[in-house]
Amino acid sequence: MELGRNSPDSDDVAERIRVEQLDILTRLMQVMTFCGLNTLVFLYWVFSHTKITVDWIVPLAIMPFVYGTCLYLGYNWRRKRQLDPRAAEASARFVRYHIGLVAILGTLWTALLIGLNAIADSDQRSILYATTVGVISTA
Fold first, then answer.
1. Whole-model pTM?
2. What is the distance in angstroms between the CA of the first residue and the CA of the last residue of the chain?
């Protein structure tokens, strides 16, 4: 028997694929969060002796909370899925939250790197360029 587009079996397969994709998304967000937090700590260490300005300290202070929200969403998704696999169906709201958080992180990383570039010496600027390449390639 051939599965049509509207058959119950194809809907079930599509739902399982969406759930698996969101599971992978939560795992990737965990890795991205830990890498991002480590990079923030490293940048703070590199620039700890420079003058603190609003241009770079505000994004640096906000980003751990955004990364924490990413972790919370991922853990909440997995907890719901373990309790009741049918209750954790793929929702557009869950995906929108992740897209919004990634957009906020991109904006904050941009502000941080531009703010740090304004006060960086040549060695620090080289670190910023390498960090920029890493942040871009993470996405």
1. 0.80
2. 41
